[in-house]
Each structure stands twice: as structure tokens, then as C-alpha cells.
Amino acid sequence: MKPLYYILFFVIFGPRYIFFIICQNVPSPRSQQTSSLVGTRFYFFGGSSKIPTNEVWYIDLSNSFNISTPPWHSDVVMPVGYGLGTSCLSPIDNSSVFLVGGRTSIITSATTFYYAYISSVYKFNSKTSQWTTPTINNFNSSFTSRNEIQAVIDNNGKIFIFGGNDYFDSTTTPIFNYYNDINTLDITTMTWSTQTQPQSVFSFYGYTATLLPNGLIVYIGGTRGSNISTSSDNIVQIQVFDTKSYTWSTKPVSGSTITSRRYHSAVLTQDGNIIIYGGAIHNNISGGIAYVFSDIAVLNTNSWVWSVPNVSGTSAPPLTQHSAALYKNYMILAFGASSASILYTNNIYILDIKNYTWVTTFNIPTTTNPARQTQSNGNSSTDHDSSNLYIGIGIGMGVIILAVVLSVIGFFIYKNRHKQEIIATPGTFNT
Ligand SMILES: *[C@@H]1O[C@H](CO)[C@@H](O)[C@H](O)[C@H]1NC(C)=O
Ligand SMILES: *[C@@H]1O[C@H](CO)[C@@H](O)[C@H](O)[C@H]1NC(C)=O
Ligand SMILES: *[C@@H]1O[C@H](CO)[C@@H](O)[C@H](O)[C@H]1NC(C)=O
């Protein structure tokens, strides 16, 4: 009768195990990943927690969810461990993601890796989950180990990358070289081009880059790479690159005083506001995190005025080296470091930018999908979706239990018949 107890155990405790398995399908805490929004998927590539990872995860934004249980999905891993790089979604097919630069590494065990700059560009086809290393014409080898950059891509498929540093490993001298060049990659021809810039353009890394519809790239924050000064003044003197004329200008900005920082995140709203979140100040000597910000600041790119909005709801914690994307009216933050001691998190936080409110539920914006509005009216669609999930699990469980029960019954029938034969055999001898 023991198998029956096992079945009973499975029926009673099975659902908890399955729930446990679902809970395990969550990425481990990390920072320094790069991210791209592809349709309703917010992808995260690589990242680091003591050692780099080659994992690829995404959150599915096609359904509502509670931020404490984001709908995580893992995808096909990258060919290399990846951190401090940048990624751009192709505007040509809206499905290929190009990862450029970054610290790429070969992971040799759970605790060991080495930096191996095999390729400076990786292409991810999000439809087929395939990774390729594209051949690049005219590649400039000085870009090989470039990282701490943020690229933008224009509507024609031209990627623009400014500056960065070329950390290779801690044994090289100097450990970093800093750059102020503009590298471009035209993804329609896979052609690289490097433009050296005038001395007056500061070398920066750890900045954010935001492409405006008028072709201007706005570079905010970051660290001026001079080996001496690590704090930047470009929160008040913002460097702007014109992708049409290939010229630089400096925008004097006014309004609220925003503290200089690096490794913050920035998103562009439809009305031309750049919203930044978090970032950090690092110790000049040790390079370690000295302070992490949890503030929101808004740069109006029409008037070049900084402002600090009134924010309600429970704020996200301080975050640096995190990811951010704007999906409809939601600024979604993910992963990152919260302090010098909490270097890796796996939480996500959502700011409703319509009224600067931190929300705990991601609700499918109803304005663009009236059908969902009626569906979720009065009853949260999170519940609706999770009940669908449980129905799915229930059916799956049912099938498994049925299969187990049938095979156990089959086994008993077989065993009983066999037993009868065994018992019957000596009987025949006796008679
Ligand atoms: C989200 O989930 C947490 C943890 O399970 C729960 O405490 C909270 O009430 C939920 N929030 C909403 C809006 O359902
Ligand atoms: C903010 O706007 C959302 C709709 O976008 C609304 O549900 C929420 O109640 C508003 N919050 C506050 C504090 O006004
Ligand atoms: C919410 O769902 C419950 C049970 O499914 C139902 O009784 C109730 O009428 C629903 N409320 C609304 C506002 O649709």
C-alpha cells in the first residue's frame, strides 16, 4: 500500500512543490546588466553578482502583475558573461537587439571567470532566441574593451556610442583609458565608423544617453574620465551631440539643483521630459560606492530646466547600476545596487509617470486596450491571470496524477496476476 501513500502525499503537497518551482524561476540579484524593451518584453542581459552572468531574463508586460511577483521568464543565455555594456533595439525589424561594448567574460566555474573580449557586438534575435556574432566592416580595434557606455539608435538603424573607458583587467597600466570619441554602427550595412572629437569634449563614462526626436543626444551625469576628478559638472552643463550635423553643444540648464552622479537611469517621455532615477557617488580613491540616490529629477528638454516632482506612494529604495524603461505611463526599474553593502538586488519598482506615484501593481493601461478594461473592472486582472495559471497547473497536475494512478493500478493488476501464477504453480505440482 506504500505507493498509495506516495500518491496521497503528492496530491496533498504537490501543488506547493509546483508553486515552489514557479517561485524559483526568478533571477538572482545582480547589477550592471543591460536592458532593452522589445514590444511587451523588458529584457535583461547579463549582469554581475561577484562574478558576471550570461543569463537573459525578461518580464512579460502583456498582463497585469503585482511587483512582488513579476512575471519572469528566462531566455537563451548569451555566448559570454556580460556587464557594463549597452543594448539597442533595431528599429528596422523591432525584434533584433544589438549589444555593444561591455565587459565580456568567459565564466569558468561558479566562482571564476576571465575577461575575454572576443567580440564587441552581439546580436540577439528575440523572435528565435538566437545569438550571433555579426561581422563588422571597418571595426576600430580601440573600441575592443570599451565599457560603461550607453548607446542610442536612430530611426535609420545607426547606433551612436560616446566615450566610455576600456577596462581590461586590474593588472594593466593604466587600469582605464578614457575616451571622448563617437563610434557609430550602421546595422543596415554592419559598418563601423569612429569620429575623434575636439579636446573640448570631455571624456565621460557611466552617463545616460537619451536621443530626442530632433536628433540630439542628451548626455546626463557620468564621470569625467581624467584619472583625477571623478565628479562631473554636466548635470548643470549638459553635453549634447547632434546626430545630424555631428556637432557638440553645451546646454546651460537651470531650475532645481540636482547632485552630480553616475550609473543612474533615464527615460524620455512623449512630451520631451527626461526622467532620471537614482545613481551613485563613488569614492575617488577606492572606487567603491559612497552614496546611492533614491531621488527622481526631471529635465525638460524644451526649456532645459531641471525640476523635482512631488512623488507619492512607497518609493523605490536607492538604486544604482540598475535598469529602467518607460512602458506606456510606467517607468519600470529593475535590479541594481542599493548601498555599498547591498550591491545586488532582483526587485522591480514601478513609477506611474502621469502623477509620479510609485505603484505596487502593474495594470495594463486601459486606454489602449478597452477590451481589458471591462475584463479587469472591479476585479484585479492579476487575480484573473493567476487563477488562469492555477487552472493551467490544475490541469497539468490532474494529468500527472491520472497517469500515476493508472500506472499504479496497472502495476497492482500485473502484480496480482503474477502473484496468482506463482501461488498457482506449486499447486499444480501438488496435485
Ligand atoms: C502584492 O503582493 C504582496 C505580497 O504577496 C501583498 O502583500 C500585496 O498586498 C500585494 N499587492 C496588491 C496590490 O495586490
Ligand atoms: C495616479 O494615477 C493612476 C492612474 O494612472 C491612478 O490609478 C492613481 O490613483 C493615481 N494616484 C494618485 C496618488 O493620484
Ligand atoms: C468580481 O468577481 C466576483 C467573483 O468572481 C464577482 O462575484 C463580482 O461580481 C466581481 N466584481 C465585479 C465588479 O465585476
TrEMBL record:
For this protein, the parts annotated as crossing the membrane are 6-23, 330-351, 389-414
The alphabetical list of record keywords is: Kelch repeat, Membrane, Repeat, Transmembrane, Transmembrane helix
In this record, what's one Pfam family?
Answer: Kelch_KLHDC2_KLHL20_DRC7
For this protein, the record's InterPro entries field holds: Kelch-typ_b-propeller
What SUPFAM superfamilies does the record tag this protein with? Kelch motif
Keyword Transmembrane helix recorded: yes
The record ties this protein, via PANTHER family, to:
ACYL-COA-BINDING DOMAIN-CONTAINING PROTEIN 5 (PTHR46093), FIBRONECTIN TYPE-III DOMAIN-CONTAINING PROTEIN (PTHR46093:SF18)
Q: What is this protein called?
A: Galactose oxidase
